C-alpha cells in the first residue's frame, strides 16, 4: 500500500512540456546536432584561421566600442564594425583567406554579450540579480582556440558537411545529421585537440502523442545517480572521483613546465584531454539514464505519463564543503535539463515537487515522518508500521505518490 499525501502538504509546479496534438499535425521544431569532424592537416589549419578571425573580430569590436564610449561618441553596432573591417581588408591580405561569416558572427556575438551585460545590470539595480554582470572581456588564444559560426550555403551529406570557404569536411559518424531539414547556422569549435561541428536545423516533425504509462518518481543522489519508484536504479559513474588522483598529477606536471615552452603546451594538451574525458563520461551516463527514463522510442503505453522530480536547490547544496565536489560530480542540473527537453519530445509531463517536501523522511506506506533521519542513514525504518526500505527507493515512491 502506498501512502498518498494530501495536496496541502506539498507545493507543485507543473511543467506541461508541450502542447499535445491528438490529430498528429506537423510542427516546426529547431534541433541542434553535434558531430566530430575528421580533418586533415590542411583543413585543421584553415579551421584555426577561421577561429582566429572570429576572435580577432570580437577583440576589434570590443576595443572600438570602448574607444567610442570614452570619447563620448555613439557606440558602433555590429554592422558598422563590419564595414570598418571590410575597409581594412586591402591592407590585411590574411582576411581574404577566411569567410566573411567569421567576422560577422564574431561581431554579433559581441553585441549579444553587451546585451546580456546590460540586462544583468538592470536586474541588479532591481535587486533580482546577485551575481556578476559579466562585462565582455578580450579573448586570448592562449586559453582556447575557440571556433567560428557560418551561415548561408551549408549542405549536409551522409558522411560529410560542406561549409563556406572550408569546403567539404568529413564526419566521423555517418548518417547522424538530417539531410532534409533547413540549416540556419553551423559552428565549428575545437576541444582537447578534436574538432566538432554543431548545426541548427529547422525540421517539420509530427507532434508527439500523450504518453499513457505509469507515473514515475525519480530521486537523485550521490551514491546512485537516480532511483526510480518502479525499482530501477542508475549508478553514478563518479567520473571526477575516479580520475582525481591522475588529474592532480597531470595538473602538477603542467604547472612545473616553463611558461611558453613546447613541453608546457604538450602538458596543457594532456590536461585538457583528461578534463574532456571526465566530462564525456559524466555526460554519457546522464544521457543514457534520461533516455531510458523518458523512453521516447517506445509505444505510448510504455512511456511514463508523468515524471516527478524534486526541485533541489543545487546552489545551496554546493555550499557544503564536505559534499560539494561529490554533488558537482553528479550533474543534477544537467539531469533535470535533459529530462525536460526529452519529455517535451516524447509527450511526457514533468512535475517538480517542492524542495521542502520531506520525501526522504516520510514513510511511503503510512505517512509517518522521521524527523531524526540523517544523511548517513541509508535505510528507512518506520517505527509506526515497521516498513524497512532503502532510503532512496522510499523517497522515489513518495514523489510518485504526489502526482496522484
UniProtKB/TrEMBL annotation:
One of its GO terms (biological process) is transposition. Keywords: DNA recombination, DNA-binding, Metal-binding, Transposition, Zinc. Residues 31-74 form the Transposase putative helix-turn-helix domain. In the C-terminal section; belongs to the transposase 35 family. Residues 333-399 form the Cas12f1-like TNB domain. GO terms for molecular function: DNA binding; metal ion binding. This is Transposase. InterPro entries: Cas12f1-like_TNB (IPR010095), RNA-guided_DNA_endo/Transpos (IPR051399), Transposase (IPR001959), Transposase_put_HTH (IPR021027). Residues 198-320 form the Probable transposase IS891/IS1136/IS1341 domain. Residues 247-267 are annotated as: Disordered.
Amino acid at each position: 500500500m502506498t501512502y498518498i499525501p494530501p495536496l496541502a502538504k506539498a507545493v507543485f509546479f507543473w511543467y506541461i512540456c508541450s502542447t499535445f496534438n491528438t490529430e498528429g499535425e506537423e510542427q516546426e521544431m529547431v534541433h541542434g546536432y553535434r558531430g566530430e569532424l575528421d580533418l586533415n592537416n590542411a583543413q585543421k589549419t584553415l579551421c584555426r584561421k577561421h577561429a582566429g578571425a572570429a576572435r580577432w573580430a570580437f577583440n576589434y569590436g570590443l576595443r572600438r566600442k570602448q574607444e567610442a564610449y570614452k570619447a563620448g561618441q555613439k557606440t558602433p553596432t555590429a554592422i558598422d564594425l563590419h564595414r570598418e573591417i571590410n575597409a581594412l581588408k586591402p591592407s590585411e591580405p590574411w582576411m581574404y583567406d577566411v569567410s566573411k561569416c567569421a567576422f560577422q558572427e564574431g561581431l554579433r556575438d559581441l553585441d549579444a554579450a553587451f546585451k546580456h551585460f546590460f540586462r544583468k545590470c538592470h536586474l541588479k539595480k532591481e535587486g533580482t540579480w546577485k551575481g556578476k554582470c559579466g562585462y565582455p572581456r578580450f579573448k586570448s588564444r592562449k586559453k582556447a582556440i575557440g571556433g567560428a559560426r557560418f551561415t548561408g550555403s551549408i549542405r549536409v551529406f551522409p558522411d560529410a558537411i560542406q561549409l563556406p570557404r572550408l569546403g567539404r569536411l568529413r564526419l566521423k559518424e555517418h548518417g547522424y545529421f538530417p539531410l532534409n531539414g533547413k540549416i540556419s547556422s553551423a559552428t565549428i569549435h575545437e576541444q582537447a585537440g578534436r574538432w566538432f561541428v554543431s548545426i541548427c536545423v529547422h525540421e517539420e516533425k509530427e507532434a508527439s502523442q500523450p504518453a499513457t504509462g505509469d507515473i514515475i518518481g525519480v530521486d537523485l543522489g550521490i551514491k546512485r545517480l537516480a532511483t526510480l519508484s518502479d525499482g530501477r536504479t542508475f549508478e553514478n559513474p563518479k567520473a571526477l572521483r575516479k580520475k582525481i588522483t591522475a588529474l592532480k598529477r597531470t595538473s602538477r606536471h603542467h604547472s612545473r613546465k616553463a611558461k611558453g615552452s613546447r613541453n608546457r603546451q604538450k602538458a596543457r594538451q594532456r590536461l585538457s584531454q583528461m578534463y574532456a574525458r571526465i566530462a564525456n563520461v559524466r555526460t554519457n551516463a546522464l544521457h543514457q539514464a534520461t533516455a531510458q527514463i523518458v523512453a521516447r522510442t517506445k509505444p505510448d503505453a510504455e512511456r511514463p505519463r508523468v515524471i516527478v522530480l524534486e526541485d533541489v536547490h543545487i546552489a545551496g547544496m554546493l555550499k557544503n564543503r564536505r559534499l560539494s565536489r561529490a554533488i558537482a560530480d553528479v550533474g543534477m542540473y544537467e539531469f533535470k535539463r535533459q529530462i525536460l527537453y526529452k519529455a517535451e519530445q516524447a509527450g511526457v509531463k514533468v512535475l517538480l515537487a517542492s524542495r521542502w517536501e520531506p520525501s526522504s523522511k516520510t514513510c511511503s506506506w503510512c505517512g509517518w515522518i522521521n524527523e531524526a533521519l540523517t544523511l548517513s542513514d541509508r535505510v528507512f525504518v518506520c517505527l509506526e508500521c515497521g516498513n524497512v526500505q532503502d532510503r532512496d527507493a522510499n523517497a522515489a515512491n513518495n514523489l510518485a505518490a504526489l502526482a496522484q
